[in-house]
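We modelled each protein-ligand pair independently. The example shown here corresponds to the magnesium ion entry; the chain sequence is given first, followed by the ligand as SMILES.
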Amino acid sequence: MSDKKTVSLALSNVSHSYGTTSVLQTLNLQVKNGEVVVLVGPSGCGKTTILNLLSGHLQPSTGRVQRTGNIRTVYQHDGLFPWLTVEENIAMGLRSVSDTAQREKEKQDLVELIHLRGFENHYPHQLSGGMRQRVELARALAGQSDILLMDEPFSALDYQTRLRMRLELVRILEQRPRTVVFVTHDIEEAAQLADRVLVLSSRPATVCRELEILTPRPRDLTGSTVIETMKTILMELGLQH
Ligand SMILES: Nc1ncnc2c1ncn2[C@@H]1O[C@H](COP(=O)(O)OP(=O)(O)OP(=O)(O)O)[C@@H](O)[C@H]1O
Ligand SMILES: [Mg+2]
């Protein structure tokens, strides 16, 4: 991965409407190479729309989208292929690797990374929600992708699994750094993952606060003021009571 100062993703003066509903208005956003940016904001403000614009799934009504590198997405819904095993699902992320031996090695490394050795030949329905989510993560991390876009990837999981997945992601990013844009409603998740938290206003979304978190990961949030600061910001903005 190249210089951390290089911009990896950018929205410049981006506006977007669905029909007559204006969702984004002249939004500017930059994500640097290797940076983990977390988006928080009220439901319906346009977070998923922003990710879809960044990924290219959606074209902005006006403005410019820049991306340097290839993108993988992890969404809230279970996106695994039910007819493929754990190993085969992960291999879908490795289609661009032409060398068979390298592909096999990478697949094994990823199975190891997500602690699913012994479950390679299981089908998604034979796994727990957390295990499925880890397979999704492995598939997204497979190959040469530089950018991960994650839309509330852990929100459907129970609290304990969510905690574990969050720490797992921190560990994985340490081993294989990526540029990440992560959407969440969970303040703790934001505080533990983000280099920078962007707080969005309600529709049309603008970035109304920015909070840089310099503490290195993994973070112990005990006694940390980050969560309190975020709560105060959200309360001031009327986004939390
Ligand atoms: N395909 C679509 N067609 C029409 N309107 C849409 C479409 N997708 C989203 N919207 C509208 O755009 C607005 C923003 O939606 P978006 O999904 O980006 O919000 P969000 O911030 O991700 O919300 P949540 O936190 O609930 O996931 C909403 O008002 C929604 O109704
Ligand atoms: Mg959304």
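Residues 80-145 form one domain.
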